[in-house]
Amino acid sequence: MSMKPLEFDRRYGELDQVISAYVGQPADDTPERPGQALTAYLRHTWHTRPWALSLAEQQLRTYAQNPPGRLRLRLGEFYPVPDIGLPEAEIQDRLVLLADHIKQSVEEGQVPPPVAVPETHWEWHARFPELGQFLGGWFSQDMPDEFDDHDAAVRDYAGSVDPTLVARLVGELRELLALGLEEVDYAVGIAELGMEVDPPAPYAPSAWLAVVAGLLAGSRPEYG
Asked: Cβ neighbours of residue 150 under 8 Å, at least 6 residues apart?
């Protein structure tokens, strides 16, 4: 029988966050230093949920010490570690290495400094979760078939989600714009967050994000 959500979160929730940070990234950690994916996880978690680091360390070590058999994986009783480009025989040692790095980071207070531009796909979504929902859900490659134009998609979002989420998105947009990035970094960011169409002419990515923030800040959603 597959695990229920609460049981999964208790046993593997933070382990899943760590492993998800490696999707699309190399497992390039060494005993001397964490790689880019783990550094991104440590940086974001230290600055948003520092209490979760101890859970991650514990869950990684427990899983490495008690790996599931194939039958229990098929039955859904254990968390199946996604393919992160490592041979199966190396997974246990890799999980222990990650746990060791997290433990060292906590015990020695090694906090990765903040960065203006998220460095991995996972970090973009962890830092701007509602923006990822908005761009990935309303501005996929199907957007031109579903809406007359970009403004129509924005209005559909504003009228179909809870006002709290609209406010959260406005905050994330303003946070992103306040970073003052180069246009190429904004273009990379909105692509990482799921946008598969170009901003409408003549807007550059940052200018269009500013327009969206203004539209949503003045909207009166019809949710509910």
From this structure: 139, 143, 199, 200, 208
Asked if 69 and 154 sit in the same domain, the reply is no
Mind giving me the DSSP string for the chain? -PPPHHHHHHHHHHHHHHHHTTTTS-----SSS--HHHHHHHHHHHHH-TTHHHHHHHHHHHHHHSPPPHHHHHTT-S------S--HHHHHHHHHHHHHHHHHHHHTT-PPPP-SS--SHHHHHHHSHHHHHHHHHHSSTTHHHH-SSHHHHHHHHHHHS-HHHHHHHHHHHHHHHHT---HHHHHHHHHHTT--SPPPTT--HHHHHHHHHHHHHT------
Q: What sign does the dihedral 199-205-210-212 (CA atoms) show?
A: positive
Indicate whether 41 belongs to any domain.
yes
Please give the pLDDT value at position 131: 98
Six token digits for residue 70 = 């194939």
Residue range(s) defining the domain that contains residue 211: 128-217
Give the pTM. Answer: 0.86
Residues 91 and 143 grouped into a single domain: no
Residues of the chain with pLDDT under 50: 1, 71, 75, 220-224
Residue type, position 45, single letter? T
For residues 37 and 25, is the Cβ–Cβ distance under 8 A? yes
